[in-house]
Amino acid sequence: MIWFGNLSHAFRIPLPAPVAASGGESTRMEHALRAVAAYAPHLEGEALVDALAATGWVDRPTAARLLPCFRHFDRDRWFADSLRSLSLKGPTVAEEFRSRIGRVMEDLTGNARLEDVGPEGAVRFTHGGREGIVLAYPAVQFTIGGNAARAVEAAVEEMPDALVIVARNFQDGTGGQLRAMLDRTEVPGTLVTVNLLLGLRATALKYQPSPDRVLDLLASGRPLKTQDVATLGDRQN
User: Fold this and answer.
1) Distance between CA atoms of residues 78 and 201, nearest Å
2) Could you give the angle at the alpha carbon of 131 between the alpha carbons of 233 and 90, nearest 5°?
3) pLDDT digits over 110-150, tens only?
4) How many Å apart are CA 182 and CA 186, to the nearest integer?
5) Could you write out the three-class secondary structure of the chain?
6) Cα gap 186→176, rounded to integer Å
7) Closest among 51, 44, 204, 216 to 128, alpha carbons compared
8) Which residues pair with 113 in a beta bridge?
């Protein structure tokens, strides 16, 4: 297990153990790239070489030597595909899923950390004087109940500038359910599917909108739609 992150926080990264580091060195290098990209697609240079060696698939000299040969490897695409796959696996991968959502929020806002909110783990993000909370669930047709409802109540007590709930997708009535829970609280609640969150990340990495624009979108107080993602690519917005 290794840790990646900036100096203000770290994300725990459980890596699958290599099976006797089998296969040729190019095959092992690709396994290492996939393992790192699933959690930390942002790493570059010496930090990336260190992370590749830490997987156990390759040693550091081999990673440094072979890395230029893998310029074609799309780490962001692998990260996205891996997160989509994880989002289907349910509560047994909840902690790992939150860690990866934390990586997305770090890319979107520049500052994210993992903390508990009520009975649930969460991702907190900040920019300037604005703060938000993300509750993330690897679930299909997600609806708010049980610990998730208690986590929403705990988040509301903190009066964040944005409360974001992420899941693979949502039941049709979940938006109305969240609005009812937040009625008269002045806390905007936003639902974001995994695919749309990844779209936000890809658009933000390409067009570099200000974190304030991203936070405005995350604080919209409604389920996000595809057209919302496109607005981040509009340089005049």
Assistant:
1) 13
2) 80
3) 999 999 999 999 999 999 899 999 999 999 999 999 999 99
4) 7
5) CEEECCCCCCEEECCCCCCCCCCCHHHHHHHHHHHHHCCCCCCCHHHHHHHHHHCCCCCHHHHHHHHHHHCCCCHHHHHHHHHHHHCCCCHHHHHHHHHHHHHHHHHHHCCEEEEEECCEEEEEEEECCEEEEEEEECCCCECCCCHHHHHHHHHHHCCCCEEEEEECCECCCHHHHHHHHHCCCCCCEEEEEHHHHHHHHHHHHHHCCCHHHHHHHHCCCCCCCHHHHHHCCCCCC
6) 15
7) 216
8) 124
Percent of the chain with pLDDT over 90: 84
Instruction: State the burial class of residue 70 (Cβ atoms within 10 Å of its Cβ: 0-12, 13-18, 19+).
Output: middle
Which tokens go with 28?
A: 């092992």
CA 89 to chain centre: 16
- Calpha distance 80→121 (Å, rounded): 21
Q: Which residues are paired to 142 by β-bridges?
A: 170
**Facing residues of 167 across strands?**
137, 193
The domains located in the chain, with CATH, are 2-73 (no CATH), 81-231 (3.40.91.30)
Q: CA–CA separation, 235 vs 237, rounded Å?
A: 6
The predicted model scores a pTM of: 0.89
The phi, psi pair for 71, rounded to 5°, reads -60, -25
